[in-house]
Structures
1.
Amino acid sequence: MIPFISLALALASLFVVGAHSAHFDIPQVDEVVKEAISEYSAYLHYHAPANASNSTFTTPRFTSLVALTDPPYWFADQPHQGKSAFNPDPNYVVWRNVKDYGAKGDGVTDDTAAINAAISAGGRCGPGTCASSTTTPAVVYLPAGTYLVSQPIIDYYYTQIIGNPNGRAVIKATAAFSGAAVIDADPYQSNGNQAWGATNVFYREIKNIVVDLTSIPASSAATAIHWPTAQATNLQNVQINLSQASGTQHVGLFCENGSGGWISDIVVYGGKIAFNIGSQQFTIRNVQINNAVTAINQLWDWGFTYKSLQIDNCSLGLDMSALNQTGNGQNVGSIILLDSSFTNTAIAVKTAHDTVPAPPSAGSLILENVALSNVGIAVQGGNGATILAGGSQTISAWAQGHAYLPDGNRNYEGFYGGNGRGNLAPGGKYLEQVKPAYADYTTSQVLSARSLGAKGDGVTDDTAAVQKLLTQAASAGQIAFFDAGTYKVTGTVYMPPSSRVVGESYSVIMSAGSTFSNVNNPVPVVQVGKSSDSGLIQWQEMIVSTQGSQPGAVLIEWNIAASSGSGMWDVHTRVGGFAGSNLQVAQCPTSAAPNPNCYAAHTSMHVTQGASNIYLENVWLWTADHDIDSADNTQISVYTGRGLLYESTSGPAWLYGTAVEHHSLYQYQFANTGNVVMGFIQTETPYYQPNPDARNSPYPRMASWNDPDYSTICTLGGSCDALALRILNSRGLYVYGAGLYSFFNDYSTACLAGTNCQSQILDIENSSGIYVYALSTVGTTCMLYRDGKCIAEAADNVSVFPDTIVMYQSG
Ligand SMILES: *[C@@H]1O[C@H](CO)[C@@H](O)[C@H](O)[C@H]1NC(C)=O
Ligand SMILES: *[C@@H]1O[C@H](CO)[C@@H](O)[C@H](O)[C@H]1NC(C)=O
Ligand SMILES: *[C@@H]1O[C@H](CO)[C@@H](O)[C@H](O)[C@H]1NC(C)=O
Ligand SMILES: *[C@@H]1O[C@H](CO)[C@@H](O)[C@H](O)[C@H]1NC(C)=O
Ligand SMILES: *[C@@H]1O[C@H](CO)[C@@H](O)[C@H](O)[C@H]1NC(C)=O
Ligand SMILES: *[C@@H]1O[C@H](CO)[C@@H](O)[C@H](O)[C@H]1NC(C)=O
Ligand SMILES: *[C@@H]1O[C@H](CO)[C@@H](O)[C@H](O)[C@H]1NC(C)=O
Ligand SMILES: CC(=O)N[C@H]1CO[C@H](CO)[C@@H](O)[C@@H]1O
């Protein structure tokens, strides 16, 4: 999250509430449904497993012919035993099948009310009723079918809206649809505010869904998804169909602000704008946009990394030329386009960097491995000038902005030397792994934690049951499924090779007890393989946490030499700030002196020397700065030692869309390593620092852990706060987009005015072959520090809100 910083954007006019004619044509049964019926007729007599009848709902799960067409999907077909451990209502229901709430999905019935009922039932954290909550999670499942909606589907806090990967639900707006967006993740309230502060919208997902606006007249400014969100959110495997008629006013995704975030595996057809998007930072991977007028309209940002963006048949690919209200400054800080393509598109990228070169570092741009096919202009300047020619060719590597190179620093515009990508990019593109859906698995290939006897109630010691689940599932080739809940463990749980581990609504493994109490004797909570292990590890949609004082807890220790296909998707750590953690406002109020009861973890994640093939996608390692379950996001002081310590000697590693926040010694540290690609990486320094500062961290320096020695590092004067990124004795690190932020000095943002909340934030020691693209920093006087010297001063590289350099190459 970030503190409230008003960006004073005139956004209201961008988000026109749809006003449609009153006429309403009753649509015929949709082609998709017909097709689904014939395609899946084999399943007409398919029934849910007997255990599913244990559902809390009395309504039968299958209520109509169309419902019978939902193809098998283990996630939906298994018994639903998810719970919210710290919700006071023992009968609170996590799993909701929209059909149990009356939705038909028949392409004829208006399902708006039924879907909204499925989302809102159970006293959840709704718009205008609460600031945020972890105790009312929900999984809202839409079986295959076409769901007509005439008004917005209002997404609630901590919700996963999930369709069937074997037959994605189509949410189809009626011709007379009226409202801000077909799915609204943060609806505007009558007071003009968003329902939830966009930078605090955590733990959200929409996946396996098609949103279809093609019945809405092309002339209506209709929007498919309104998505101002923050960390631990994702859109995945979503298709958006907009009008392709000439003059179309449709918009696919509208995101006016927030702090995220992850978007992947998206296809959009048509529209005036496919993505109308602005936020601090985002990582966006594998997005295809076809037949839009403007594919991406970048409203503003500090830094966005687009990987495998495929734009086809649009007039304009990416418009990053937005100006601020007075028209004399740019709104977009920086953009990276990696391994992307533009086809049959007049202008690939439009910038204002040349004509409105203010602030001086705004509009920083990296194009690396971007294929053009029948493109008019690759990069067009503000006055229409061609800055980089189009055609049919591949742009190897091109940059615009302030560059710091071995031969000096300068305002750069042009091609740059490519990096040796090596085994990070088999086939030329940096490797990508789609989050496994296990779409062809049956329920017999799933082992449930609760069925095996784990309680997941946040109280019972589940160590043995969790271990049994992980061991048994791996040896049987089954999915180890953590039904929604909080699984308390008092010792290490070990994830063996061949693990496929899946959570539900971000199931939590929470450590407690004396095993993890020794600050000088760190012990892993979840051990991903042992140091001699090799094999497959796939882990998704979970959280690892601690309860109370746990200064010896290493939440995730990754040791395994992983085989191809391995990875960690949407797995997060959360230290403090939630119900049940005993690290909330009551226990850990912001205080003048650190409270040992709030020393909550030694390290969030440790990748050890023997680990290899480490693939992370959308991973947020968070020490809470505020209490999500307080009435108004009240700040707290919770202390952890280290963020991500990465020590794999060989790699390769891919860290896409990772963030590490509020650890007292550092956020990221790479020691004695290399062969890592990452982007976008985002950090925040603890808000309490420099009280105490990094030299006086409650976590004593451990030389064997390569902890920084701040007594020698802090030579610049100013606050000696935790480094965001420390690179030690390493070579071959490629950072595509970094946002390293320091917003506070002892809970005061006054230091932002002088850009001196701390004096250094990125430290490179005894290393070479380090490449950092689109580096943005906030609140630090020196942006990049190497072997005792400041290389890039913030004052020389002022951008929209942060300070930015487009490129650093260490030589
Ligand atoms: C389903 O309910 C029956 C009867 O109440 C019970 O014996 C059984 O254990 C339940 N199964 C599950 C998976 O909860
Ligand atoms: C996000 O934008 C809305 C609309 O302009 C504004 O009310 C809100 O304060 C903004 N939030 C943040 C965190 O900037
Ligand atoms: C969405 O549009 C694509 C391309 O026009 C089409 O192939 C697909 O069938 C459409 N899907 C729906 C649900 O209309
Ligand atoms: C290109 O986009 C336009 C506008 O959406 C559409 O009418 C046309 O059919 C598209 N061409 C192809 C080949 O898809
Ligand atoms: C627009 O940007 C320019 C250049 O940074 C700045 O001087 C001006 O104050 C900005 N205007 C607004 C309304 O923020
Ligand atoms: C139903 O649940 C029981 C106990 O939880 C389990 O042993 C059995 O395999 C389950 N049956 C099916 C069809 O999933
Ligand atoms: C510098 O790095 C190299 C290679 O990583 C290492 O061998 C050497 O010991 C390091 N020197 C110091 C002083 O740490
Ligand atoms: C490397 C580089 O381009 N540095 C520039 C930083 O910004 C100042 C003023 O804004 C310029 O004078 C420098 O040339």
2.
Amino acid sequence: MRKEFLPFSPPLIGEDDIAEVVASLRSGWITTGPRVERFQEDFKEFIGAESVLALNSCTSALHVALAALDIGPGDQVISTPMTFCSSIHVIEHQGATPVLVDVEEDTLNINPARVEAAVKANREVKAILPVHLYGHPCEIDPILDIARRHGLAVIEDAAHSLPARYRGRMIGTPSPDDDVTNLVAFSFYATKNLTTGEGGMLTGPQEIIDQARVWSLHGMSRDAYKRYTAEGSWSYEVVLPGFKYNMPDLQAALGLHQLKRLPEMQRRRRQHVEHYNEAFKSIEEVQTPTEREHVESAWHIYLLRLNLEMLNIDRARFIEELRALNIGSSVHFIPVHLQPFYRDKYGYKPEDYPIAYREYMRMVSLPLSPSLTDDDVDDVVEAVTAIVERHRK
Ligand SMILES: *Cc1c(COP(=O)(O)O)cnc(C)c1O
């Protein structure tokens, strides 16, 4: 057994990241400024996005996306129960109403056929908010097609999917369909594939990103950097009751070098995934994750599903036993419709989304990070194998 506890998703911070943060501190400019500008430029080029906006979180990115699209009271937004609560909170923040639809069995991503049915069954749908869960792109083409036919916007939650591809297109590049307004929100939270501690990025068409920028900083028509430096002046106009969601240079400093290291970090992530897949494929009591043929997953999370009918313990006990063997793990996610706020407000029952509910009951996210060593991954494999052997029916 391992001597030290293995955290579920340890960040990989390099000396170049640390030096850049120190340089930002010494420069005298610590809030939104030159490093954010550079990070935005580099990110835009990396993704191939039309326009980008750096923010202090993905939640902020999703929120200003809805605000910039003028989605508010009386409007409905279609999304998935199998996500982090903040994907749905932002709909509530805008006074709009979430309409949740169930997921596909293999990827646990939103099911386009159910999206189509929900668009037909509800009168006030203005947007679809799909999530690329675990880094595996959802079926975005059918969703964009539904959006085009019904005049809806598509706001993608890409918190897990940097970098990921769908039919060769990087997630975050402009929609191939000019008729659909398409925004994409990324997260740089501590556990994500690229981290700035906290942070996010919104990509999309120039015009909407410009509007989102105004919403993101007090509704002011110019940003602080331009106001207080030689380039700008003291003057500004407040045109909207905006939020305070800008990314500071201290955070952008952390992202600049990680973006350069990202391809290498992803290669390492994929090696760990293959290592897990290889080790678990012969164990009948567990199910390994799939990757559909036409996508490249960002492999943010390695989701193991337990075939509970073959074991004499439940998922909670499985996690406890992993912990006892010094292996950290997690669950992604407790479906939103089970959370008291949403359950009580909308009267959801667990079985309203039967696939999300059933799969939630048997899922465990195993440690996955480029900072893991091959020995760490071996330790996880050993622990999972030991628990299965102990509790096989
Ligand atoms: C992490 C996460 C978010 C929120 O990201 P923040 O940057 O922490 O706001 C949103 N959606 C999903 C699916 C996430 O995992």
3.
Amino acid sequence: MIPPDVLAALRDQRRPVCAYVYDLDVAHRTVDAVRAALPPGALLLYAVKANSHPGVVAALARHVDGLEVASGGELELAAGTGASTIVFGGPAKTDAELSAAVAAGALVHAESLLELRRLAAVAGGDRAGAGAGDRCVRVALRVNRAGVDLAGSHRMTGVPTQFGIDEAALGDAVALVRELPALRLVGFGLHAVSNNLDAVAHAAYVADALDWSVAAARRLGVPLEYVNVGGGLGLDYAGDKRFDLDALRAGLAGMRVPRGVTLAFEPGRFLVASAGWYAAEVLDLKRTHGRWFAVLRGGTHHFRLPAAWGYSHPAVVVPVEDWPYPFERPEVRDAHVDVVGELCTPRDVLARELRVDRLRVGDVLVFGNTGGYGWDISHRDFLRHPYPQIVLIGE
Ligand SMILES: *Cc1c(COP(=O)(O)O)cnc(C)c1O
């Protein structure tokens, strides 16, 4: 269940074990599988926020067509990998970040009319004489479309959110770009959802997004070059549903991408989640009010997702034979245990009622599918415990 090279990497860790292992080969195989499902010529970008470990980003950058970034920090990291395509999104870009994006030659997903003005001001100022007037900064409008119905954990379009330009204001935005000679409008960014598990629905969403973009561009007189349908390919952490790439491929196969238009995808989670394992050693076992608790050297400050989403993350027991103490080693057999962390809050729970055949203090619990939105979204300094080791294998 846990790949031998991941187990080998864990065996080398100092005790008590607390580590993330990222297997770059798994990430590469996933990239290849996703790419095979996309129409020929499609651009496959990696959304850096899912896992921004520099080694992971550098490895991904070698296998995808470019990187999607959402902050100045991510932009700097992406530029450092030499990625040929960088797309910069996010609802609150500062002038300094916009300026860095212009300098890096990034394609900017503009999220408001004001941002378009600020981007043009920064681009004109930065490139006085050379850049101003030659429409050198490529920009796409991130649109919050009026009606998109796609299931997933975080809907960002078709509902009120801080993201993008309301579809009703699209005409004004296009007219504004025409008045800003530093900018060249190339198309639309339509990222709509996260963690969608329905590949058939996702393919239908992509086809609809393309049709909508072609129609909107025609209506508004935009020479369409670029349609970015975002990310959102999902993983079923607690169950056994699978985002079916064959179904995605079949659903996209009939789609006609007009000549001259680049269709871009920018998944984050799906490309890296399955490449990550979080491992934490059991420091104590106890029973209170009739329930067993396995207390880990680790917890939600390293892997926040189960607490944030309110589910139990599956884990596998890796037995460790070494027991250095002269006293008896605590263990439970054929039990259900709540798997909790080292924080002083009852919310520090990674899994409830995990079924174990045998679990001893000193064994290690390993949580798969933790390579995306794991360490990156966690409140790592709460209580100031040491960080997990981060181990890269593969490549
Ligand atoms: C977060 C994000 C993504 C990646 O989403 P996943 O659900 O990880 O695939 C892509 N595009 C934008 C604009 C994002 O904000």
